[in-house]
Structures are given as structure tokens and as C-alpha cells.
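Database export, one record per block. Field names are fixed; values are copied verbatim from the stored entry.
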Amino acid sequence: MNEERLVERLFQALISGDRETARTITREATDADGGGLTPEELSQRVYWDSLEMLNSLFRSDKLTTLAHHYGIRLLRSLIDQAQAGYTQNDRRNCRVLLFSGTSEADELAGQLVTDLIEADGYDVNFAGGGIANDEILSEVGERKPDILLMFASAPSDAPNIRLLIDHIRSIGACPDMQIVVGGGVFNRAEGLAQEIGADLWAKSPCELLEKLNTQRNRRATDEQRTVGRNRRPARKAA
């Protein structure tokens, strides 16, 4: 199956809001008799690439708002349908608290990731975007997740994520918790994930799953982190 051609065909259906054609393309792609894709592969390799294309062209003013809205809303329905067919693996006893950017596209990326890692055995709470740092910190303290994941964050979120990581490290909240970022602004700003002190980062859902399963013990090094490195220690009271 030519997946590049598949993405191109689906993309044209998405931006025109052609729901019937989009569903037909999906059925063809998953046709078992023709060696089709699994629902997980469809999300990881077709829907994710389509979402990336929608966002990239929209950011560069090569796609109208109408076409982008058609695409995002239709793609959400396709992702929901694919999720219903995921194979649910045994639980890993690993808790994930997941946040995303505030735009509908960023939240859709977060939803896609949530569905995939949940099916892979992780226990996930997904809150989307627009959550204040103090609420996130409170939730971290209450739920004590194994992984704090911020995926597909918007550029405007990066400073707050940096402050959040700094605060978590400075107060020693959930010291065994792994902080993971990916997608969104982290794909477009090379080195940003390392700079803000993330323990792990990934560009796509497929890469994220692979790293979560093989690098659970990875943590940011002192040399990697720049958050708070130049902060002066507080003066002692006279």
C-alpha cells in the first residue's frame, strides 16, 4: 500500500469536507483482504500525517480557515472511529497525566496520542489545553502520575511548561515522575525539549510509544537542563 498516496487522497477529502469519500478511503486502507492497515497503524501513519499537513499548511497561510475547519472536524470523527477498533493491551500499571495546546488541532493531536497509549496499556487522564500551572501542579500532587506528558503544545504554552518543570524540580514534587513532551511547538523548535529540562521527547505518536516503552528510566541531566540554572539563591534574612 502506498501510504503517501493514501495521505494525499485523504487530505483532499478532508479539506473539502467530503465525509463519504473520507470514509471510503479509510475502508479501503483497512481492508484486511488487501493487506490493509490496522486501526492503530491508520492513526499513527495516516491520520497523524494528515493532521500534520493540515496544521503546517494552515500556519503558512496555504490553507483557508474553512478548509482547515473542515479537515480537523472530519479527521476527529475518523480518529474516534479508529479508536473503537484498537487492540487493548494488558495494563502496565503506569499512570499518565496528559495535557495539550489549546487549539482544536492541538487537542485532537493530544486525543490521538491518548487513545494510542491507553490501548498500549497505560492508564491515562487527558485534560486538553488551557489548564493553569497551579492546577496541573495540584493534580500532579494528588494523582502522583508516573508520567507527566505535554503533547502538541502551542508556542504560547512553552514558557509556562518551562516554568512548570522548573517548579516541579525545585520543590521535588513526585521525584520519580518522568516529564515527557512532544509534537506541536517541540517539533518545530529544535532543542526546545532539552532546553526546558524534559526527560524525554518525541515527534510523533509512533516515536512516543517506542520511547515510553524503552526509555522509562531516562531523566534529564544537569548538563541538559537550562531551567533555573542561572537563578541566584535567595538571600538569607539578616
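Remark 1: The domain at 95-214 is CATH 3.40.50.280 (Rossmann fold).
Remark 2: The chain has two domains: 3-83, 95-214.
End of record.
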